[in-house]
Amino acid sequence: MGGMDVGGGIAGKLWNKFRSESVFVNYTPFFVCLAAGNLSADSFHHYISQHVHLLNAFAHAYELAEECADDDEDKKAIRNLRKYVQAKLKSHDSLVREWGFELPEERSLTNATVKYTDFLSATASGRIEGERVPGKLATPFEKTKVAAYTLGAIAPCMRLFAFINKEIQALLDPNDSTHIYKKWIDHYCSENFEAYAFRIEELLDTLSISLTGEELDVIEKLYHQSMRLEVDFFSSQPIIQEAVVPLSRTLDPAVGGELSIFCDFDLTCTAFDSSAILAEIAIITRPKADPDGSETQLSRMSSADLRSTWDALSAQYTEEFEQCVESITTTKTGLINAWQSS
């Protein structure tokens, strides 16, 4: 997983701490199919329709955060972030057409979208779970604290989105004009979007300078919660086609999802083949004779012969396993290549 320098403030520290969770977005069926270039148009339209609701939630959160900021420069910075989102909303239709897609129909919010937008609204309004924030924010410091909390809830979304798209872009041939989602991916890998994500993080660092350790812990909690809601948002995107993915964090039966798990012959699911290690341990520790003192064919074999026998068995198993998987996934080569190459 590639690195990304986002500075040494709290925003950078939190991203480095929770960046590992991006793998659950990277390998969602949505992004695996998108990276392979064969995500169905209906699935993409559904995502676009939900994304508009998120953009509106971000704009509203910025508006509330601006009211809470005490410093004029901070207010201006938040206002500029809101203007960026508002410009995105205004140009949204033309951008979708520019990417080569028809405009999606208006669709109701999914549960994952509702949870995310409610979280953003509650945070920007000062309703933070476990944090005693007064109903009326009487002092400038109390207001500034809520502004920092709001930026902490927004920052991971933009950083994660920029990161994932750059991960995908690195897999694509820059000269390939047949990938139907390349323009969309390039748009979110642009310097313009990266600068937007960085401005959020820079402002979060600024607003957090005067906070106590306990208040910084609240920002960390909000940052992590936002990251997990983003994972849920992409995990819940309905995919009407079959997809081969190496892992799955969530599976929503409400959208008709089915998950098949491929495991080793010993019913284990490990990142690496542990059979060779177990075989070597068995060879080294094998008894020279049975408990009753009698010798067996196995005990009479040398370690070299045992390893040779194991290598033959392992090679046969690997060949048959690959044939089995290939027969199941012959129509999904593009998807497999997408995540195997990352």
UniProtKB/TrEMBL annotation:
<protein>
    <recommendedName>
        <fullName>Thiaminase-2/PQQC domain-containing protein</fullName>
    </recommendedName>
</protein>
<dbReference type="GO" id="GO:0006772">
    <property type="term" value="P:thiamine metabolic process"/>
</dbReference>
<dbReference type="Pfam" id="PF03070">
    <property type="entry name" value="TENA_THI-4"/>
</dbReference>
<dbReference type="GO" id="GO:0005829">
    <property type="term" value="C:cytosol"/>
</dbReference>
<feature type="domain" description="Thiaminase-2/PQQC">
    <location>
        <begin position="149"/>
        <end position="236"/>
    </location>
</feature>
<dbReference type="InterPro" id="IPR004305">
    <property type="entry name" value="Thiaminase-2/PQQC"/>
</dbReference>
<feature type="domain" description="Thiaminase-2/PQQC">
    <location>
        <begin position="29"/>
        <end position="125"/>
    </location>
</feature>
<dbReference type="InterPro" id="IPR050967">
    <property type="entry name" value="Thiamine_Salvage_TenA"/>
</dbReference>
<dbReference type="InterPro" id="IPR016084">
    <property type="entry name" value="Haem_Oase-like_multi-hlx"/>
</dbReference>
